[in-house]
Inverse folding.
């Protein structure tokens, strides 16, 4: 008769329950909602969530289901932090956020984004997404799937691409079917003809400022999501100079202390560092504290 420990069944059952619980927790922890950061607002813009319209303010956060409207002279600069997308909503535009999700898959982050441009236009800059992520902008007449990198989309279906490519599916009027085209850098999709051609110079001149803005706002993502702030080495004020740091001759600060940044000094080799009130010569064999 084979001896089987009485507790082995309990151990196996407990182990299986632990594995199942951990698997359930991991699956549900991977998918998370994305957020939209309002970087700047110029002019009058509003947003709606749950039917209430409120003023859109700089540094606020939007989530799925929000609708943003810009006034006649207004723009809204938006950053979708979870997927590295930067947008500018141009004047007289309405945009809703229908899907904003991210899912961690090993070292990759899979994102799914679906926006609805009801009216007006937007400019965007898109960082390369991990497969099978997608980013699409729906308009009343079709869908623009963004591959990157800098683009301009109008609610009437027009698409201009400064760099990268955009796939466009556009439903032709009067039940004329649909067209699917890829718009490459320097080209423009005209919904009135269903054709792709080079961006007209007058059209580009009208959108250039918006494209430049999203490009500048997108620079933050080029350092892996970190913001780099360059500060001066020293801050000079009327009451505090940088005398004594070894950066060359400086104007005398108030109080007329000893001059110690004269010729021959430099960073790492400053001038006098002994007590300002001492008139005794420095002993070259004694290092200052």
């Amino acid at each position: 008769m084979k001896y089987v420990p009485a507790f082995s069944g309990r151990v196996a059952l407990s182990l299986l329950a632990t594995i199942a619980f951990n698997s359930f927790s991991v699956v549900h922890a991977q998918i998370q909602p994305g957020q939209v950061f309002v970087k700047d607002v110029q002019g009058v813009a509003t947003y709606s969530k749950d039917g209430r319209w409120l003023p859109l303010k700089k540094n606020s956060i939007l989530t799925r289901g929000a609708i943003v409207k810009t006034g006649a002279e207004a723009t809204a600069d938006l950053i979708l932090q979870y997927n590295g997308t930067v947008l500018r909503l141009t004047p007289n535009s309405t945009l809703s956020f229908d899907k904003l999700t991210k899912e961690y898959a090993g070292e990759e982050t899979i994102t799914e984004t679906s926006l609805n441009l009801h009216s007006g236009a937007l400019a965007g800059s898109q960082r390369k997404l991990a497969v099978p992520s997608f980013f699409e902008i729906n308009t009343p007449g079709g869908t623009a799937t963004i591959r990157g990198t800098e683009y301009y989309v109008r609610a009437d279906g027009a698409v201009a691409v400064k760099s990268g490519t955009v796939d466009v599916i556009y439903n032709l009027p009067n039940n004329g079917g649909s067209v699917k085209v890829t718009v490459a850098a320097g080209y423009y999709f005209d919904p009135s003809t269903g054709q792709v051609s080079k961006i007209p110079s007058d059209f580009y001149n009208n959108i250039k400022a918006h494209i430049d803005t999203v490009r500048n706002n997108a620079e933050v993502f080029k350092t892996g999501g970190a913001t780099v702030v360059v500060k001066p080495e020293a801050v000079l004020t009327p009451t505090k100079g940088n005398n004594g740091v070894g950066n060359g001759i400086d104007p005398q600060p108030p109080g007329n202390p000893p001059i110690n940044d004269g010729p021959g000094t430099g960073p790492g080799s400053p001038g006098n560092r002994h007590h300002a009130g001492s008139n005794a010569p420095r002993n070259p064999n004694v290092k200052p504290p």
